[in-house]
What does this fold into?
Amino acid sequence: MNRKTVLVPLFLLLALGILLGGMYRTGGDEATADTAPHFDLTPWLPIDPPFDFDFTKFLIASDFSPAKDETEVALNKNITVKFNRDLNSATINDNTEFYIRKSGFV
It folds into this structure.
């Protein structure tokens, strides 16, 4: 067996480990994801781009009220969700879209 062929399964296992390590499920019945590191392409571009290349602008829900499994919530009940970023004029504009998911992936 060629020594290089052993590296292929090792790299595949490493990629799978990184993928599974990035997303995990906490003991509090709450799914979370690691915050992605800041990655900006602007310094390497020859021109000033007309849009933002920052891939880290997303919100992660961290706390819920009413509780997750509370089923008898009145229709006019206020529901609050805390996010990892402030929701203000710097983070919300006319192009902002919100997607609500009940379970699983968006």
Observations:
- Confidence is low (pLDDT under 50) at residues 31-36.
- Residues 7 and 13 are 10 Å apart (CA to CA).
- The longest strand covers residues 61-65.
